[in-house]
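The records we work with from here on pair a chain with its fold. Each token is a code from a learned vocabulary of local backbone shapes. A record is reproduced here so that you can trace the correspondence yourselves:

_____
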Amino acid sequence: MGKKEKKDEHSGLMEELKERQNEAKVVRKVVAIITVSILLIAIIVFGGGFLYINSALKPVDPDSKIEKKIEIPIGSGVSTISQILEDNGIIKDARVFKYYVKFKNESGFMAGEYVMNPTMTLPQIVNSLKTGKVMQKAVFKITIPEGKKLTEIAEIIAKSTNHKPEEILTALNDQTFIESLISQYPELLTNEVLNPLVKYPLEGYLYPATYPFYKEDPSIEDIAKVMLNKTKSVVDEYRIQIEEKQMTVHQLLTMASLIEEEATEKVDRNQISSVFYNRIDAGMPLQTDPTVLYAKGEHKEKVYYKDLEIEDPYNTYMNPGLTPGPIANAGLSSIEAALEPAETDFLYFLATPEGEVLFSKTLAEHNEKKAEHIQ
């Protein structure tokens, strides 16, 4: 190859190299422009979103002197409440309020008629809804103590309303009503309550508390929803622990009810809980007397050996594991004990006539205490 040819080839390579460099510069410019554009769009979107949310978290009108009557119907969820507040100009955005409530893990909002104004902050609104600061006084209140069965709760409701106990029980066990509740409270009620072995679907689900009512004659269904809302708010506080123990809410309330029925004022519920869990782990029946009485459908001061032979899925002397469902409603201390049993080797416990509960590791030790304290 001659010198002239080599020179021409070299020149061609240089031209090609320059062309590629120019193309690379163009590509880099395009990429830079696109990148900057995307960043600017992101800043605008997120900045605008931040400003919008920040604005939505503030009072609608800090200088307003308008007061509005806001009615929160019985059974209203957060979504419904949020929309009601937005429609009445108490909050700026229902979605922002809903996410605020979820982020703050707020619950337990109460139905009723409230007086609110656009100057209220979100924390003030939430506090008002939780404490039930309504504009009128309660027409009546229903107090449900701990450890009450559904039949007893029906009698308590009947005393404060125009409904008879039998009518209340019929309504609370209505298949269509229960199915509607399952759809309304999917995180609380599941098809477990529809198990044919379960005596009363809502047994154990009506939380012990005092419930104010602001209408003279609420329906049985509305009364039940008020109580279920309370149960849901309590259970929601323990969702993480329930998942960690790999329990369903139904199992939790069932175990809590057994603890509640065996506990006395003096007893450590966590130790009773440990006995139940230890027996389940050991493959032993729970053998707790309150389940026998629940199976028989009666209250007795003393359970006899012949009572233990009743053939019923709730009889824990005849059937291993938990009962098909709760046998009563449980208070907070029993729910917590069901989630946090003490670490013990106890397999037996004995309630003395004085209200003390004695724990044992062996049957021999248990029988000794029984002979000493039970006549």
In short: The chain has three domains: 68-131, 140-236, 245-373. The beta strands are 68-72, 112-116, 140-143, 210-213, 348-351, 357-360.
